[in-house]
Amino acid sequence: MSVPAADRHESERRPELGALIALGAGELRDAVLGIGALHQAVAARAFGAAGARSSPAGRVHRQVAHASYTAVGTGVALAGDALAAAARHWPAPAAAGSDQPHELSRDPRGATLIAIIDGLIGDALEEQDSPLALPMSVRVDGRAVELDAAALADAFPAATGRLCVFVHGLMETEHAWRRGTEEPYATALQRELGLTPIELRLNTGRRVSSNGRALCELMQRLNDSWPCPVEQIAFVGHSMGGLVARSACHHAAGEGVPWVSSVRQLVSLGTPHHGAPLEQGVHVASAALDLLPETRPISRLLRRRSGGIRDLRRGSLVDEDWSGRDPDALRAAAVAEVPLLAGATHCFVAATVTRDPRHPLGRLVGDALVLSASASGWGRTRRLPFADEHGLLIGGANHFALLNHPEVHRRLREWLAEPAPPHAVAAR
Asked: In what order do the strands lie in the sheet with 162-167?
């Protein structure tokens, strides 16, 4: 069994800070070199337009500029490496009410910072085995819970057989569900319906399908070690979290993993089932910017975005959508058709920033990140068969308002209180 994060020695707990410093220095170095490449491209065009007479000056300019930007970038990188090494020996402040050193990932603000970084480049950080690429985990009070019987019994003393698993979205953590002033869904549903809330934290820069497999494995370990028999499971996913939950259930159903037979409801809040326009725009923009030397550094920056972000272009759920394919190709192959999990009730919430959801502006911008059509399963060539009674369209709300909204809470209470469909009970 792995050692819980809270019980590691202080000398093993500082890599997060050191990795953050090293990453910051590396990004600053890359920014300097990127500016240098942009400078060189603009200068090359200017000297080229000036004709042959400018060639000697152009060569000198290139050499001086290259040496200057390289020196600055190298200096920044060396300084960052030195600070990162020193950070391993800095004393860690104790967590409030504890004599244990404090981790960045346990503090809501520190966790959010890491979550933003992971959302942007988390797949690359995982390949580098960076301490910032946190593995998927169950969290209680910001602390990762080991998935063994003793640790789960200690973390969930009032555990019931009805689980409600909350899966956050891109660049979020489990703390995101506490936005706003309303009582968090987890607390309210536990009090009202007797559900046991399970809040996850995941590296959202990973591919949705990779996180789906990880969630499938986590749920099986949870099912095997839960303090009492698991009777029912509900998923509530915000944004990308809805895709991850669907991917996990699809994988589990295909593999015949036992826990999936207990799934009763899957609820998606502002989930881009058919893609998000922002990622679609960035995909096209990166291709356009790659056409000119002067803008190619900006294109390279945009193309560094994580696989998780890229999956939001079309709502990809499985490996086949991206494995072995050019991620920057404009004419990408169609995504795989992944059906809704049989035997479960599927619900969705969509929002528009306009009070009237039918207003043309509301249809155009949706909740500012996801269009209501995509969130409700409607696409130009694809459609998810959500039932009308299991959908909710909220006007005057943005994407993040769905994390803590009274109307969403009301419908969650109704949906999660519903008995399983008759055919689902028979199948199980």
From this structure: 143-145, 137-140, 196-201, 162-167, 232-238, 263-269, 345-352, 391-395
Q: Which two tokens stand for residue 346?
A: 């599927």
How far is the C-alpha of 309 from the C-alpha of 302, rounded, in Å?
Answer: 11
Q: What is the pLDDT of residues 173-214, one digit of tens each?
A: 999 999 988 899 999 999 999 999 999 999 999 999 999 999
pLDDT, tens only, 107-143: 899 999 999 999 999 999 999 999 999 899 999 999 9
Q: Which amino acid is at 197?
A: P
Cβ–Cβ < 8 Å for 421, 387: no
pLDDT for position 297:
87
Give strand pairing partners of 166. 199, 236
Contact 233, 165 (CB under 8 A): yes
140, 159, 267 from 412: Cα distances, Å:
22, 20, 8
Those residues of the chain that have pLDDT short of 50 are 1-13, 94, 96-101, 423-428
In angstroms, the CA 410 to CA 405 distance is 9
Neighbouring-strand partners of residue 145? 138
Nearest of 346, 423, 420 to residue 390 by alpha carbon: 346
Asked if residues 416 and 193 have their Cβ atoms less than 8 Å apart, the reply is yes
